[in-house]
Amino acid sequence: MPHFSDRSISRRQLLWNAGGGIAGLALCDILNSERLLAASVSTESPTLPKKPHFAPKAKSVISLFMNGGTSHVDTFDPKATLTRLHGEAPPKSLNIESFFPYPGTFLKSPFEFKKYGQCGLEVSELFQHTAECADDLAVVRSMHALSNNHTPAILQMMTGFIQPGRPSLGAWAVYGLGTENQNLPAYVVLLDKTGGPLGGAQQWSSGFMPAAYQGTAFRNQGQPIADLASPNLVDPEQQRARLDFIEKLDRMHLAANGGDSELAARIDSYELAFRMQSKAPDAVDLTKESEATRKLYGFGDPACEHFAKNCLMARRLVERGVRFVQLYAGSNATDSWDAHAELEKNHRTRAAAADKPIRGLIQDLKSRGLLDSTLVVWHTEFGRLPISQSISGRDHSPKGFSIWMAGGGVKGGRVIGATDEFGYQATVEPHSVNDMHATILYALGLDHTRLTYMYNGRPQRLTDVSGEVIQTLF
Amino acid sequence: MHRFVLALGLAFTAIAEAGADPDFFQQKIRPIFSAHCQGCHNDTLKFSGLSLDSAESFRKGGLHGPAIVAGDASASRLYRKVAGIEKPSMPMQGDPLAAAEIAIIKSWIEMGAPWPEDPKDQNAEQARLDRLAAMKKLEDQKVITDKDRQWWAYRKPVRPPVPTPRNTAAVWNEVDAFVVALQEAKGLNSAPVASRATLIRRLYFDLIGLPPRPEEVEAFLHDPSPDAYRNLMERLLDSERYGERWGRHWLDVARYADSDGYEYDMLRPNSWRYRDYVIRAFNQDKPYDRFVREQIAGDELPDRDYDSITGVGFSRNGPFIGDMVLMQNEQTRSDELDDMVATTGQAFLGTTIGCARCHNHKFDPILQKDYYRMVAVFAPSIRKDVPLAPAALVDQYETQVKKVDDRIAVIQEQVKTLEKPARERLLAARYAKLPEPVQIALKTDPAKRTEAQKLQADQVKYSIGVPETDILPELAPADKKQVETLTASIADLEKSKPAKLPEVQAIVDQGPVAAPSYFLHRGSIQNKGSEMSPGSITVLNAAGQDIVVPPPQPGAKSTGRRLALANWLASDQNPLTARVMVNRIWQHHFGRGIVGTPNDFGHMGDRPTNPELLDWLATEFVRRGWSIKAMHRLILMSRTYQEASEFSDAEDEKIDPEDRYLWRKPLQRLEGEAIRDAILASSGSLNLKPGGPGVFPEVDAEVLRGSAYQRWPLTTDGPEAWRRSVYVTQMRSVTAPIMDLFDPPESIGSCARRNVTTVAPQALQLLNNKFVAGQAVIFAERLRNEEGRDTRREVERAYTLALGRPPDPRELPLTLDFISKQENYHRQHSQVLLERGVDPAQILPPDKAALADFCHSLLNLNEFVYVN
To answer: Closest approach of chain A CAs to the CA of B30, in angstroms?
Structure first.
């Protein structure tokens, strides 16, 4: 297992060996199998596939992040008590901590809950389409997080820490496992149409690790990857001619420098860039999908079309060997789940934008046999309080909230843990964000206590000094 | 401050004992506090640091100091705020206090503000003392031993004798003597000296971060003087560009950025003054011990000046969660102090003291107590933007501003009065839409409300309001006009304020006496242990010795704690300070330090590859008055530095594949900043304007959409943005092109050494990015202007501009062939572009397009981004 560090890492280790790079290129089109290409590219790319610690359950992760804080008591954690005590003051003993001053009275959920699937999982009407996959979902109702403030809370979900500067979960996954397709970024971030989450690129950063592990945020318009195409409408043959010229000069320089491996690696990176130019647009070309598939995801419904695109793209990416795809439903702008007032209106709109696409994703992955090797994680930075804020909304609730997982070896149709009768605090089998991270790494075949990176005088971990795998999920 | 609070406490007790009416507080004051103040000022929310939950917390005061001066209402912040004398007035939310209530508070303060002591539980007090004693035992558990002090980095460097290697020809100065002696011991051969063409490019990028101009290359190659190299070096050390290059290295260490990070990532309007200060310090060759003192205690130095107060902004460079009261609490302050202490440890001491926040350091003999004693050094400080102006001018400025503000306040009051009926009407309409039980709650007599109704009523008061924009259309025409006139006059008054004085972001102490600072068990603010006095790192001091903070002089404004620490850091007795800095200098000259982990000289760090050399350099650094330029001269004049990097030797390769012993000069990849600067320099469009606020080069609009709040403006590429990269705004959430993909420092913690990774997106960027493509065209135009359509001469000049040398006999025909093929291609391609509807004005003539393609290729070469 790699145990890189900022001291022992040699620059060479991080780079690719010259051997095979160019020779492999001629084969490129013949093989026509993108996954096989990796082996021909190089031997020491920082993102080359690496062996896991133990047999993995999942090869890839698709993380569906509901930005702004989705209310658990209005989605996956029904609370009859709130209906009963609607409008009443919470008992002092509950000691509710709110982010904003002036906490209110108990607020019942305005949404109807129903039982779904053979397992009878209770889900509100907000996720009625997702609920069709109830038997695949394992809901953890006992999550708790450290901060009741958005940015630190999202940072914790993404990087394990409430302070910025740490590598994100996707970066750790790629650091530990590399990726199976060198023609696409190992770790892709798909943003909402109105923008990114609070904290921006800090949320998919590689922190103190090399930039090679950071997430690549796909552009929502035009080419998916920045600078993928020449601004002057250059066709591939012409690009080839230019690259050939550059390579000839680089090779002479390389020879004069004794075949230095760093220089050779950089020559390789140009070949890879050339292939990325032709392969990446294809990976995100959704017109190649059948009408039925598109419909399954919710194409044609303007309420959810953007997230539908991103979910479908996520499937195409994991299908091509991308290790980690991070989706954001909602952004920092107006379309966040952050329902401090008028929760009903806010959550209906937000859920309508995500519900059908999520169903589409799970059903599509399943029908293609990809769900077994893809872990789908649905999460949010915190839940929302059982009491009102601004009369019709709810404030942030990090002490108890819900997430769910599907696929990737997770046994569906079950509920793990519980909050108290009001939905305020995780009381039965409470799980921290560290636990969630340990579990995701576990599904990928990585032991979170052994996946370390030497920085700042000590071996650093995604889970710092705690975290336990939620074994009951598998 | 501490003494003052204590005195105040005694005064309370005295009054209470003197028999002041305790019922007055319970009956008159308590209800006012609970109705108007405690919503925010309680133990949990503690807005502005003030809690009115207990006599004790009240006496502690808030972030701005004590809430009252007993016996003097007009000097008491509490009274001034509720009476509207001091802005912002209180309560911030909700209705102002009734005149009668304000009067009650006034008389209470004048009575001495009696607040009967909260009853104490004797057993609880004993339990508290027991717990503290137990904690103290834990705090003192680990002891530093003599053995701990024996670690190589913790022993004061002793100047070693200069060795005398056999190969005297390879020894040009002391540096070589140490390097060659070790090479001989390892059985390594050293490389021959590099060519002059290589040396000039190396020196240029190393010292000023720019490629040499062709004329400079020409002059150097033919300079007959035996001192040609030395003269070139001196010229570059004297160049203003030098500070821009080496200042950037220090900015990495100082985790410099132009924005706060976190959620809001607010731009910092004054951060650039610290950046310019660093550049200036390098250009002036400010002695490093002074540089250290200024950055830790620039505000406390006896000979402080504008420069030193700017330097102390070092402690403001870290990420900051924001000024919003909701974000400011004891935890965020603890994180801020952690940033200051951890960065100070790494930057000046190469020590990961930050690891001792929650427990004794796991690998190094650094005590958790050391950490909290360092915290106590910084704890009395507050963040302050300090004007760079004489006190008299500042006073004058503030008086003028206050005068205007007072007038504005009066007008705002008039506006409020005019709007009152409309506001009330609109509010009533909003209330009418609320759920029925809530409306009932509002209508119920406050005294008779149930618990739920109280919550609901308070919530409505706090959260349901009427936005200003809704009110204006509701006003009667005459009132509306008057409000508009008044609003306009406010705008005029705002404009009449004097121009803001230049400010720097600094830290200064709140006063001469520090508030207590505590040992935090497991790093948690919930687990306060013993009170800590300021101190340094035990293992670095002789047993029983530590920094001494002299008692503050009369009239002092500061505790002097940071000055004491600064003097300890910048002392030649400190075993680490000089070693750590010479190692950084060495690292940038060779790509790797003598210690490969420049921020960690502890047990988890690398051992020095050449400890004698490190110690000799460290003592020499001090001997030469901590002059950084003197260290450059020493290193650059060595033969070791001037070795060729093309040299290969199978035997050497086998013995030392990583080139740790410098048998050849390591190749170095340029940082993103230097690559961007080199592109601009080659094309001739580099704008050398120094200093001032950062510029915003064009960033892809889609990337900006992904950033929170989109603070980076949408700009169009142009000469104003084509300044040196050190002057490009460095936000924590957005990084300008080129710098973004070539391993930028994450600028959250101190960055000792940049990563060097090679990935395909970098190639895509240099091949396809609009900025690079645009510069290639400008590069081609430059060639046209300078060499005028003689392709061969254009090619020769292009090579020299970009690579510092003319093309060799193999490259020249290859290049000419490429250009001619490209010209053919463009002749056809321009037709295609026209057919696709591209604006003809945007299509370059084929010959020029071909030349631009060639220029573009040069910017992509390995030789362009690597320095031999």
So the answer is: 19
pLDDT of B18 reads 35
What is the rounded distance in angstroms from the CA atom of residue B88 to the CA atom of residue B96? 12
Chain B contacts of A252, Cβ < 8 Å? 810-811
Q: Contact A391/B706, CB-based, under 8 Å?
A: no
CB nearest B811 (choices: A10, A249, A267): A249
- Return the H-helix or E-strand segment holding B385: strand B381-387
Q: What beta strand segments (E) does A113-207 contain? A: 113-116, 121-124, 137-144, 187-190
CA proximity to B336, closest of B525, B496, B470, B599 = B525
Q: What is the pLDDT of residue B199?
A: 97
Test mutation, B326, B328, B333, B705, chain A, max A CBs within 10 A = B705
Domain boundaries, chain A: 46-118+128-218+284-473
Q: Which regions in chain A score pLDDT beneath 50?
A: 1-43
Closest partner CB to B773 (pick from A200, A212, A232): A232
Q: Nearest-CA distance from A382 to chain B in Å?
A: 16
Nearest CA in chain A to B756: A11
Print burial letters for B804-832: b (CB count within 10 Å at least 16), e (below 16): bbbbeeebeeebeebbeebbebbeebbee
pLDDT of residue B30: 81
Residue-level pLDDT at B465:
86
User: Which residue stretches of chain B have pLDDT < 50?
Assistant: 1-20
Mutate to test the interface with A, among B341, B601, B764 (most CBs of A within 10 A): B764
Task: Look up the ipTM and state it.
Answer: 0.81
Q: Which residue type is seen at B578?
A: A
Element (H, E) at B431: helix B391-432
Q: Give the three-state DSSP class for B495.
A: helix
Over residues B409-429, the pLDDT tens digits come to 999 999 999 999 999 999 999
| pTM for the predicted model, two decimal places | 0.82
Q: Across the interface, do A207 and B743 touch by the CB < 8 Å criterion?
A: no
pLDDT for A37? 37
How far apart CA B52 and CA B552 sit, in angstroms, is 31
| pLDDT number for residue A44 | 56
Chains A–B, number of C-beta pairs less than 8 Å apart: 277
Nearest Cα to Cα of residue B565 among B289, B255, B293: B293
In CATH, A46-118+128-218+284-473 is 3.40.710: no
Q: In this predicted model, what pLDDT tens digit does every residue of A32-42 receive, in sequence order?
A: 333 333 333 33
pLDDT digits 0-9 by tens, B377-417: 999 999 999 999 999 999 999 999 999 999 999 999 999 99
The confidence score (pLDDT) of residue A367 equals: 97
Alpha carbon separation from B461 to B417, B427, B439, B466 (Å, rounded): 19, 10, 12, 11
- Per-residue confidence (pLDDT) for residue B571, from 0 to 100: 96
Contact A472, A139 (CB under 8 A): no
Pick from B766, B768, B855, B866 the residue to mutate for testing the A interface (most A CBs within 10 Å): B768
Confirm if B338 and B354 have CB atoms less than 8 A apart.
yes
- Cis status of the peptide bond prior to B88, with omega within 30 of 0: yes
Whole-number Å distance between alpha carbons of A173 and A175: 5
Instruction: Fill in the amino acid letter for A409.
Output: G
Inter-chain contact B452–A276, Cβ cutoff 8 Å? no
Cβ contacts (< 8 Å) between A102 and chain B: which residues?
39, 455, 458-459, 461-463
